[in-house]
Amino acid sequence: MKYVNKYLLLFLVLFQLLHAGTTGKLVGVIIDKITREPLIGANILVNGTNYGASTDLDGRYYILQLPPQTYSVTFSMIGYKDVVVKDVQIRVDLTTSLNAELEEGVIGMDAVQVTAERPMVQADVTYSQANITSEEIDMLPVEELEDVVALQAGVVSSGGGLHVRGGRSGEISYMIDGVAVTDPYDAGMAVEIENNAIQELQFISGTFNAEYGKAMSGIINIITKSGDFRKYSGNMSSMLGSYYANDPLFPQLDEFRPNTIQDIQGSFNGPIIKDKLSIFASGRYKRNGGYLYGQKIFVPESHEWNSQTNNFEYISPSHVRWDSLYHPYGINDSSWVSMNWSDQYTGLTKFSWIVNPTLRIAYSLSGSETASQGYSHAYKWNPYGRSHQFTTKLSNMFIMDYSLNQSTFFTLSLSRSVNHYRSQRSDKRNYYQNHSTVSIDSVNFFGFSYVDTTISADPNLFYVSPTIDDYTPGNNFEVGGHSMGYFEQKSVINTFKIDGTSQINRFHYLKAGFEFRNTNMSLTSYSVQLAEYTSYTPRIPNAMESPSHNTYGKKGRNPYEYAFYLQDKIEFEDLVVNIGLRWDYFDPKWKTLNDPSDPNINSPVKPINRFFDLDGDGQISDIERYPENQKNNQDRMNSNANGDLWYKNAKAKSQLSPRFALAFPITDMGHMHFSYGHFFAIPQYSYLYTNPEFEVPAGSGTGYTMGNGDLEPQRTTQYEVGFSQQIGMDIGIELTGFYKDIRNLNATKIIQSFVAGDKYGLYINQDYANSRGITVALSKRSSAKISGNVDYTYSISEGNASDPAAAFNDEASNIEPEKMLVPLDWDQRHTFNTTVTYHPIKNSGLGLIFSYGSGLPYTTQYLGVRTSFENNARKPSTYNVDLRSYYHFQFSGMKLSLSMNVYNLFDFRNELTVFSDTGRSTYTLVPTYTPQLSGPGYNSLDEYLIRPDYYSSPRQIKIGLSVNF
After folding, report:
1. Sign of the C-alpha dihedral computed for residues 886, 887, 890 and 892 taken in this order
2. How many CA atoms lie within 13 A of 826 on its CB side?
3. Does the reported pTM lie above 0.85?
4. DSSP string spanning 331-400?
């Protein structure tokens, strides 16, 4: 920590500070309309705020720190008529130019009214980015943040993740109000923000500036709304809906059931103390009943407890165990149950306080609670056997802005985010925390002991293995039992950030910053053991002896990281240059093995690690193998078989990353830009701490992977060149080419254990990839009742592996790893997105989204054996159309809106997952070489191979009413 204090002190001495990444800048020149001479001392006021400026000796002005939104600006000077310019748009990280010409007049004359027109080509954009306002989000059929991002050029949505310009998922950095909120455990977003709380969404896919770090592919920067300081306003809306499809693939969707989907949200904002303190609050309740249904033919308690045999047995007169593939009868009411439902509550409250003209303070509290269950095809006839998932997110954020003068200010940011995820048997959110605790070996597990004890004191919570009746592997429906796994992970992320800028002169806009973040992570994961070797009594394995039970212990893992950056934006008349330097540092605060061939200190396999070598010959003879000569853990800790310490501390890592970009005009309304940068991303911490007890049981074959605290940062070098041109008054086009070289990606290395035949996968930095492509973006601002955007991307994404565990999986399957570049799983060559808004009559509108994606790659197999190199074939292309329509009207002084959203308007059946022997979701060749153990019916092989989860979601219709006041 002393090093952090030293660097922080040095930074504060060198730089005067400002907040980065949440505001924009307004600049311009004011002249006399007749003489064309600059006006000195003219006043500029951003109406409804306390932002303003005066012109200098050259008639120039600049206003910093403007939050992104639309303003009106007044220009005034004694002896001249006022000029009021409306619809002035401020965008994050961009400079808006606004000039004015004043004509002489007397006091009291009406002001000259002007409406600003934003240029379709932004002159100071030096890399690819999109700034989407809250108004633009409201007009489109989008529900979540990810829906908006997925529409941007260069983005591919695949496998539940977002891939930007060929990068792996998890390479995006998430920021809220300029503060990073990425959970370093899994690279997901640690905070839930709804669209109704977003003022502006900034998405950067190009070579972003030095102020942005910990990302190799993209930046998502969310600016949240603030309360108005002078007036109250609010909104309440309710939408009801249903999935609707007349298709036997999706049972129970042939009727419109409006309570299947419930979406209630609202917001309120206004002054608490006029012109001093304001509040913005928003909330949302969202229930999605899902579209994948199962039938309650069986239930987990299909087995009953036999007190005489101390066992769960199937309800059958003779207790015969039947295979789940052809069990002859069901035992329940056969009612239909949704299998991919979710319930979510989210909320945000933000206070904004103008302490004085130079000091502003904001505090926000946001949180969410989510409960859900995911679809599992094996449980289709036993839907209550699936695990429940619960996610709790909570974030506190404090931001203080202090202006030293008109050209310099700084921001201090403090945040604390908690992301808590659980997957468990019980449907009670805090069941395990509330249960009585059993303690063995001074380690507590919620209601459970290590070994030799039934795992739950609650007799009503049965544990039945879902495979207890199976004797054929694969393609089985489970006729009883439930998921046996338990997983809990919690991240507490504390961030300190101080940023700054100064408009040094007309040309140089200097930014600098420091960030420190530490994370406390806890984890408990196990699979309940229930088999013949446990006498069919459910037990939890000992965490120190079984790799199926992992825990970070009471203290958890506590890595920390910090970064410095310096950025200069140089703006000349015909040239804009962004140049910067960033230094990142992280310390995993963990250990690695000195001898990977014998990893488990609690159960070593080398004789010399188990017994003392009494005669010093380097061998353990039979006479040395007696109980009193055994080593304990401390002995092994001090010296392994090679005489080294058992563990060594993982090293801290750092990188210096230069960034450079420039833009310059080539026509009166056209610009070119070029950018280059090195990008650094800390590995997801889950890869550092996997298998924390370093366990590889003897005789396990190739069965386990192990984390590596010494993983290096992943690195990307990216180049980009682009051309932007305004056509007429309303159309802009942008053409961009990019190339990314990606190195040090997470991979697995096969480690040979001391026991012959036993191997495990160790995470290392070895994978590599590259991507290149072009994007074409066409935008049209609203005119003639229509506006829209067209985004097309052609890209090639190749690498040696898509999955960090690919080499391990290949070894376990006896497949030769790839030694050449192959298409990555998300290598979508052609991506096309169109958004259109149309206003046919006053107070009404239509929003339409059309999306097309060419087929993603897959690997062909026959009889379970790969028939060619990885990702050698293509899935079918995908299509989708979403529609939003609305009509506004007045009633009793309130503005009401009726709306309808339809997702997948034409009910396309997009095949997202395919059978590897046919390349289609519709059929497979499995029945040609696998025996049909029973005739047609719900437990037949044919029925099992009908996979509704392989397709995109069917048509969804939502109808709503909203009230604005």
Report:
1. negative
2. 21
3. yes
4. -S---EEESS-EEEEEEEEEEEEEEETTEEEEEEEEEEEEEE----GGGTT-GGGSPEEEEEEEEEEEEE
Please give the structure tokens belonging to residue 819. Answer: 């030694």
The separation between CA 546 and the C-alpha centre of its own chain, rounded to angstroms, equals 31
Confidence label for 466 from pLDDT (cuts 50, 70 and 90): low
The kind and range of the H/E element at 942 are helix 941-944
Residue 666 maps to a domain:
no
- Residue (of 23, 31, 30) closest to 49 by Cα position: 23
Closest CA to 356 of 397, 400, 388: 400
Distance (Å, whole) CA 406 – CA 54: 10
What confidence tens digit (pLDDT) does each residue in 58-113 have? Answer: 999 999 989 999 999 999 999 899 999 999 999 988 899 999 999 988 666 677 88
Confirm if 799 and 770 have CB atoms less than 8 A apart: yes
Rg (CA), the chain: 31
Whether residue 588 lies inside any domain: the answer is no
Residues contacting 135, CB < 8 A, separation 6+: none
User: In this structure, what CATH number is given to the domain that contains residue 107?
Assistant: 2.60.40.1120
Interatomic CA distance for residues 945 and 325, integer angstroms:
12
Q: What whole-number distance in Å separates Cα of residue 725 and Cα of residue 731?
A: 9
Residue 257 CB: number of other CB atoms within 10 A?
14
Exposure letters 918-943 (e unless 16+ CB within 10 A, then b) = eeebeebebeeeeeeebeeeebbbee
The total domain count for the chain is 1
E strand residue ranges, 99-250: 100-102, 112-115, 129-133, 155-158, 161-164, 172-176, 179-180, 182-183, 188-189, 198-204, 218-224, 233-243
What is the number of other CB atoms lying within 10 angstroms of the CB of residue 810? Answer: 19
How many other β-carbons are positioned within 10 Å of the β-carbon of residue 224? 20
d(CA 661, CA 655): 20
Residue 149 in any domain: the answer is: no
Q: What is the rounded distance in angstroms from the CA atom of residue 775 to the CA atom of residue 786?
A: 23
Spatial distance between the Cα atoms of 514 and 223, rounded to a whole number of angstroms: 20
Closest CA to 932 of 944, 919, 920, 949: 944
Place of tokens 């006091």: 107
The answer to which of 471-480, 594-603, 820-829 has the lowest mean pLDDT is 471-480
Question: What number of other Cβ atoms are within 10 A of residue 313's Cβ?
Answer: 16
CB 900 within 8 A of CB 940: no
SS3 for 3?
A: helix
The CA distances from residue 636 to 610, 643, 751, in Å, are 8, 9, 21
Handedness of CA 163, 169, 173, 174 (dihedral sign): positive
- Is 68 contained in some domain? yes
Distance, in Å, from the CA atom of 486 to the CA atom of 524, rounded to the nearest integer, reads: 8
CA distance 399 to 738: 36
Q: Tell me 683's DSSP state.
A: P
**Dist. CA 301–CA 313, nearest whole Å:** 10
Residues 727-771 pLDDT 10s: 988 999 999 999 999 999 999 999 988 887 788 999 999 999 999
Distance CA 726, CA 733 (A): 6
Q: Give the whole-number percent of the chain exceeding pLDDT 70.
A: 87
Question: Which residue shows structure tokens 């590897």?
Answer: 916
| The two structure tokens encoding residue 46 | 């951003």
Q: What is the span of the domain harbouring residue 44?
A: 2-115
Identify whether the C-beta of residue 898 lies closer than 8 Å to the C-beta of residue 890: no
* DSSP class of 860: -
Give pLDDT, residue 465: 63
Report the mean per-residue pLDDT for the chain: 86
The string of pLDDT tens digits covering residues 386-413 is: 999 999 999 999 999 999 888 899 999 9
Q: What angle do CA 703, 706, 708 make, to 5 degrees?
A: 160
Q: Per-residue b/e over 171-201, b at no fewer than 16 CB within 10 Å?
A: bbbbbbbbbbbbbbbbbbbbbbbbbbbbbbb
